[in-house]
Amino acid sequence: MIEAITLASVGGLLGIAAATLASLVLTKMMFVPFAFNLGINVLSFIFSAAIGIIFGFMPARRAANSTRSWP
After folding, report:
1. pLDDT value, residue 2
2. Any idea of the CA torsion for 49, 53, 56, 60, to the nearest 10 degrees?
3. What is the pTM of this model?
């Protein structure tokens, strides 16, 4: 579960960084102002981490509740 949360969080941070960089480049090319909204970026990071929690917890729970016995 820690792995899923870590991967989702790092992916979220990389996504925010890539989107910010692309926005900076495009605003320079189009001569429009750039406005960084911290709230939106924090929300996107929280959403990314929540995806990691949900999709890390579900398989871990299923594995913990598995009643299959191995010979």
Report:
1. 80
2. 160
3. 0.75
How far is CA 21 from each of CA 26, 29, 46, 63, 64, rounded to the nearest angstrom?
Answer: 9, 13, 20, 40, 42
Is residue 25 classed exposed, middle or buried when 0-12, 13-18 and 19+ CB atoms within 10 A define those classes? Answer: exposed
Judge whether 45 and 13 are in contact, CB under 8 Å.
yes
CB 53, CB 3: distance < 8 Å:
no
> Taking 80 as the threshold, does the pLDDT of residue 27 lie above it?
yes
Provide the pLDDT for residue 4.
82
Amino acid at 21: L
